[in-house]
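Exercise: predict the fold of this chain.
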Amino acid sequence: MNAIQRAKASIQALATMMRGTAEARATFEAKRLPPPRATTVYINGKGMVQVLDADTGRCLGFRRTPKEAAWLQQALENGTHLHQQSA
């Protein structure tokens, strides 16, 4: 009986630890991912496209083509611009 009680206590302790680990991972994920941003694209002439924050009007980036600006806009709205791998 003593071995069964120790095994039961070990399993309960392991389950408690696993719950704590899951909570810690969820907290880390919530801190790591930036909130999505609403952005707008303004074409300001040939070779000059701005991506602006829709809430503040702050310029978030310049691109040469509307296609590149759309990629940046999509990345900013999805929050994937911070997770790019450097070459």
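Check your answer against the key: Residues 1-32 form one domain.
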